[in-house]
Amino acid sequence: MEKLILLIYYTYCMRLDVKKILVPIDGSESSFEAAKYALKVAKMNNAKVTLLHVSAIPPFPRYFESLEKYEEEIRKEAEEWFNKIKNFEEAKEVDIEQVVNTTALSVVEGIIHIAEEGNFDLIIISPRGKSRLKRLLLGSVTTGVVTYATCPVLVVR
After folding, report:
1. CA 13 to CA 154: how far, in whole Å?
2. 36-89 residue pLDDT tens
3. pTM, two decimal places
4. Are 6 and 151 in contact (CB under 8 A)?
């Protein structure tokens, strides 16, 4: 399968042959901007958007009494982000699904696994997340997704 990688600087929506769009969300402003763009693309193509938050289970969850409590905290935080996105003007008339995944894998592997299992046509992702550590061009999660995804990846700046 041919892989399409695009780096864009906020342009108008384009018509693509996509019906299922996956949008990883980490609560950063740049992930919200990627979600807005994904919603525009979805509306133009009558596509479904899946908002995804993947969190790696920490090796030593010392701040949480149990794995269940940790997962519940992650779910609550992700729900707030998803609700914020669903209230965007761009979200009107778009079919939106929400997925929260805690994984023993890395965040990148979690995103790739969901994308493959769900047969997504396109992943729309922000260039950097919440991490203060900046890469030259892309964050480590974005770089991993662009490298390992089996479907096209659109990086929205």
Report:
1. 12
2. 999 999 999 999 999 999 998 877 656 557 778 888 999 999 999 999 999 999
3. 0.84
4. no
| Interior/surface letters 61-88, b for 16+ CB within 10 angstroms, e for the rest | eeeeeeeeebbeebeeebeebbeebbee
* DSSP secondary structure code for residue 54 in this structure: E
> Can you give 109-152 as a three-state secondary structure string?
HHHHHHHHHCCCCEEEECCCCCCCCCCCCCCHHHHHHHHHCCCC
| Number of other residues whose CB lies within 10 A of the CB of residue 11 | 8
CATH no., domain 5-156: 3.40.50.620
Q: What kind and span of H or E run contains 20? A: strand 20-24
